[in-house]
Each structure stands twice: as structure tokens, then as C-alpha cells.
Automatic annotation (TrEMBL):
Domain (Glutaredoxin) ranges: 6-63
Any matching Pfam family: Glutaredoxin
Protein's name according to its UniProt entry: Glutaredoxin family protein
Length: 88
């Protein structure tokens, strides 16, 4: 089963989040960004992935999850797990 979206969990002021956001925007990849400081459920998702920590950016693409991935890693994961989400 393929993923239906790329979800990037972030928080305001996070330089790693800003860097990933910029890289994904340059790549043309569409993604949904969720602020873990505004969404307690999202913070729980991140803690479940990041060994109890609220480390961001955390990215989820279907069953694929990564803490602080590079743009290249995210695009490669989309190519593998949800190629239909790649920009044309």
C-alpha cells in the first residue's frame, strides 16, 4: 500500500526544519507540515518515533519514518514508497 502524503512534523524556530522545508520546496515535492507545539497529537507521534523525544523535523511517508532526514533522503523515500507523489 502506498502513502497518500508526506508529513513533516516541525516546530517554530527550528533551523533543521527550515532547512528541510526549503529543500523540499526547491525539489517541488508537496508535503504537509504539522507544528508539534500547536498539535499535542502530533507531538505524541514524534515522541513515538524519536525514542520519547520531540526531535524535529520528523518525516512520515506511509510506513517510512525518519528523524531529521535530509531532503535527498525524503525524496528517495517518496520514490520508493509513494512514487505517485513525486513532482512531474
Amino acid at each position: 500500500m502506498s502513502a497518500e502524503q508526506v508529513t513533516v512534523y516541525s516546530r517554530p524556530g527550528c533551523p533543521f526544519c527550515m532547512s528541510l522545508r526549503a529543500g523540499l520546496q526547491r525539489s517541488g515535492l508537496e508535503f504537509t507540515e504539522v507544528d508539534i507545539w500547536q498539535d499535542p497529537e502530533a507531538a505524541g507521534v514524534v515522541r513515538s518515533i524519536a525514542d520519547g523525544n520531540e526531535t524535529v523535523p520528523t518525516v512520515v511517508i506511509g510506513d517510512w519514518k525518519a528523524v531529521n532526514p535530509s531532503t535527498r533522503e525524503v525524496v528517495a523515500a517518496v520514490a520508493e514508497h509513494a512514487p505517485h507523489l513525486l513532482p512531474a
